[in-house]
Amino acid sequence: MRQPDPTWPDIIEAADWLRQDLGVSKSLWGDACLTMGRELAAASLAVVSTKNDEHFRTSPGGYFHGMVAKAKVGELHLERTLWALRRVTTPEHPAGREERRIVAKGAERGKVASWRALAVTNIGISL
């Protein structure tokens, strides 16, 4: 991110870069943007980026593909996921301490911790 208070266009641009790191093809990213809209596609990718590798049956790209498929039939409930993620990352919530530890550990390994931190801090953005 180029600025401390990113705009939606900044977030969407960052998501387009992140998709490559997560193994999401350009065509799947385009399909997600057409299906969900660019903002929700970026938020969905942010959710995928917060998951540990053990969470995926195949890959982060496969998980994102599943999210897009659910969105196409009206079964993606991203608001629930975002509220749950926000609850988990709240300092007073016991699970929040664990998530921050995971994000910090990712930063040590050189992962996309800045995007994860962005996902964590911007969950309150009204979609």
What do you see in this structure?
With 127 residues, this protein is mainly α. It has one domain (8-121). It contains seven helices and no strands. Helix 2 packs across helix 3 and helix 2 (26-36) packs parallel to helix 4. It is globular.
User: How many H/I helices?
Assistant: 7
Return Rg in Å: 14 Å
Q: Please give the share of residues in helix.
A: 55-70%
Tell me what portion of residues adopts beta-strand conformation.
under 5%
Distance between the termini: 19 Å
* Shape estimate: globular
* Number of separate structural domains: 1
Uncertain spans: 102-118, 120-127
| Overall average residue pLDDT | 76
In total, the number of strands is 0
Largest sheet: none
Q: From the helix content, strand content and strand pairing, which structural class follows?
A: mainly alpha
Give helix and strand order, one letter per element, not per position: HHHHHHH
